[in-house]
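User: Second chain of the day. Same drill as before.
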Amino acid sequence: MTTRPSGNDIALQLIAQDLMFLRRFFQAVATSQDRAVVPIFCLYNYMCLIIHESHKALRRIDPDLAAALAYNHAPAIERARNSVKLYDDKAKTPVAVSAEFRRIIEQHRHEHLNNTWLPLARPLETDLALWRFRGKLISTSHTVSFFLALPPRSLKPEVLGPVLYDIAVEQSRYVSTMADGFLGKALPSSTRWPSRT
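Assistant: Same format as last time:
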């Protein structure tokens, strides 16, 4: 007689596959030095989606395990994962999506314009920052604000670095803990983590 895996077993297998992908990505990042900047930016919201959704599933399947894996910056991670779900969000219409982009633009205008004490210099102010990597344009402050789900004030260099560092530490801790076998106790034997060599 064959038995079918339970819904929880299937969910845990999918979580394991996603987290092993992230583990391989983090290992590649660790050896890439400055070449990892662009891939991290491109994958950031997907990392947030995987972490948020896996933790949400674990809270239902194994609350004790989920509690042990609780992470800081949960609101920022939850907001950032929404950019992946932009058009499959059941609650958002195209009008709501447009409104979200308009909100980001207005926040940037409010934060960055009319800040100079010299009125003649106000035409030189800008509400859009450009990010370049090795001379190539890779993003704008509006795009970063949308993908990272951070307010314009957080995009200042002296703030952005420490905020992203703290979030990255939490992301890597979560993935590392899971990938190093903590989840192995909850997985069926067929999906246990491979041993590290």
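The radius of gyration is 20 Å.

User: Great, on to the next one.
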